[in-house]
Write a structure and sequence with these properties.
- The protein is mostly beta strands.
- The chain has a single domain, classed as Sandwich (Jelly Rolls), CATH 2.60.120.10.
- The chain is 4% helix and 51% strand.
- It is built from 1 helix and 26 strands.
- The strands form 6 sheets. It has a 7-stranded antiparallel β-sheet, with no helix packed on it. Strands 2-3-4-11-6-9-12 form a 7-stranded antiparallel β-sheet, with no helix packed on it.
- The mean pLDDT is 95.
């Protein structure tokens, strides 16, 4: 069986003063399982006057998943949560029917992955919530130090919850490394290279793929394992999940199903009280203005 493999090149941009590479969504692929947004922010050292500062903004229909590699960020939200996110930790903010939050870097050095998880129909109108995870399972494999961000691997389970079957794994090597990871054939997967260079050999694919930062390698369902090897320091994220029958509709900070929903949510955020999204207390500065809603089509 030949496994479908695609190479996806990230879009380069800027969020709150921090350089980012956006792997998802793209024209080639909108989702990997329920993972519907994947930003690699940094690594960067910014002067104090240019530190990342993202004013209050809304979310619906998703969970934001922030994995901190270097530095510190202060999270505030409309539930009253105030949490510093440090290296090796995860913030999970489940927006449900609506929440707003702000993010401010507290350090000059910053490096993180910011991911969104689309909520299934049964959960996307749930009450919003915020959770912080300071301890995650860690294991060593063939020279790679792995952190299990979400899901299960080799009998270990992350404490981070999910509403659909997911896998999130950070793999880092300080020198030469070579390992074979068993994958769930029912999942689709993505290898998101953050630093260095890694060769990836998915089972059922007749080529070895060389990955560099800014590249996401999509691996379709049916792949039972992937070999990863590097000759020097490198880091990547492995994202996986059950394929969605119909990708969600994503615009600005909203994840929905119908274009009409986006107009309603935009009008809510334009209200002085933030409507369903509420107000972020303690943040000094303006909130982000909602852009005009374009003509949207269902994916």
């Amino acid at each position: 069986m030949n496994v479908h493999v695609e190479r996806i090149t990230s879009h380069v941009g800027d969020v709150g003063g921090l350089p980012i590479q956006r792997a998802l969504p793209s024209k080639a692929r909108r989702v990997i399982g329920a993972w519907c947004f994947a930003d690699h922010a940094g690594p960067a050292t910014l002067p104090p006057e240019r530190r990342m500062n993202v004013g209050p903004h809304p979310h619906t229909g998703l969970a934001t998943f922030s994995w901190m590699i270097e530095g510190e960020i202060l999270h505030r939200d409309s539930l009253g949560s105030e949490q510093v996110l440090r290296a090796g930790e995860v913030n999970l903010m489940t927006a449900g029917r609506g929440i707003s939050h702000s993010e401010e870097s507290l350090s000059d050095r910053i490096h993180l992955a910011q991911l969104w998880i689309a909520l299934p129909d049964a959960e996307r109108e749930r009450a919003p919530s915020f959770q912080h995870f300071a301890e995650l399972p860690r294991l060593s494999q063939g020279g790679f130090e792995a952190t299990l961000l979400v899901g299960e691997l080799d009998g270990r389970r992350s404490p981070v919850p999910s509403f659909t079957p997911l896998l999130g794994l950070d793999l880092a090597a300080t020198g030469p490394a070579d390992t074979v990871l068993a994958l769930r054939p029912g999942f689709e997967h993505g290898l998101m290279l953050l630093e260095g260079e890694i060769e990836a050999a998915p089972a059922g694919h007749d080529a070895v793929e060389t990955l560099t930062p800014g590249t996401l390698l999509y691996i379709g369902p049916g792949c039972a394992a992937v070999e990863l090897r590097c000759a020097a320091a490198a880091r990547l994220l492995l994202l996986g999940g059950e394929p969605w029958a119909q990708p969600p509709l994503l615009w600005w900070n909203f994840v929905g199903r119908e274009p009409a929903e986006m107009q309603v949510w935009a009008q809510d955020w334009a209200r002085e009280d933030g409507g369903r999204f509420g107000v972020v207390a303690g943040y000094e500065g303006p909130r982000l203005a909602v852009p005009p809603v374009p003509a949207l089509r269902k994916p």
